[in-house]
Amino acid sequence: MKMNRRKFLATSAAAAASTSGLAVGKTPPIRGKAEHVISIWLGGGMGQIDTFDPKHKGDPKGKKPGSYYESIDTAVPGVQVCEHLKHLAPLMDRVTAVRTIHHEVIDEHAAATNRMHTGRPISGTATYPSLGSIISHERGAASEDAPPYVLIGYPNVTRGPGFLGPRAGYLYLTETSEGPAGLSRPDGITDIRQARREDFLSVLRKNAGTSDPKIAEYKAAIDESLRLSGPQFAGAFDLDRESAALRESYGGEFGQRCLLSRRLVERGVRFIEVSHNLNFLNGIGWDVHHEGILDQYKLIRELDSAVATLITDLESKKLLDKTLIVITTEFGRPAGFDVRGGRAHQGTSFSCVLAGGGLNHRGAFGVTDDLAKETLENPVSVPDFFATICAAAGVDYSKHLYDGDRPVPITDRGEPIRDLLV
Known about the structure:
The chain is 31% helix and 15% strand. The chain is α/β, with parallel strands linked by helices and 422 residues long.
């Protein structure tokens, strides 16, 4: 029997995985019940010891390592968070701070951003897809009137589809007041003029034929653009339809992005990334070297109010169990202080956060030492974290994607955190 190259490589990869201790073909993959993912990206590197994994208080002037702020109790006994997370504290029974994420990329923000979006180191031979593109590729949009993937922030290759191709890409916008780039009709294009253009387009299509795959893909892209520029999807971006009280509860531009993400979930978008790396409030974002740490509390408070409101807003609309909220960042921060009182980078242990999505939440998962540096219990690799998100969103984390004929494990052979899923 002859076996083509693609089938041979897939079979070999599966055999290698089984001999390395993975339960390939033995245990069916866990499938959660989340239908949507809202991924909140904290660009710069959120300090776990100053947010979701607090320890004893330190002293930047005396160079005593420790947390910058006091800690407060939460809805989960034994789980504490930073004092500036006062709105999230009573909601931590719907949240799990995964405190033992780790990777070795700490010297360069771009490389760490790539790792936390694709789950893999940068490769010279492949451009790997982002988690958003993977979930979009596997699940598609939840409605034919919505795209599968929307990025609220600046476009970047690390958020992109990689070898999956443009159909697994994203629609993006940089300001909630403006809507997606390229979908709004230019000034001066009336309904009559638009109708004439579409009539002309139909003639061009008939003449072009359908045999060329590239032409067919281009036609599909045009159809989707026309559909998404219509009033049903465009209405999602009209935040003025929400009450003034709710908009105020969400807060400033970052909060409005979170509000928009809820409206996009309602329209059927599968994966939304909300970026919080535009140097809000403290002038430098989460990269709190030197004096940048002085106003770090402003970022934490903004995150707190926006995410707490998002959780309760989704819950009020019976969407929280169907929507997994994920908070990620490049890496963490050490307990020690630099020469001017700020913090450097740390990858040995840091926190990422999961909320909603039908998970079995417990406030926190994993235990670190008294400086939030080393993992004592339940280490979680980046592939494991990605596998957890995939499992929660109903994506088979054990399968392979294909870069041409080359099989690529969808999560670099990660295993989900079973305690949160079963």
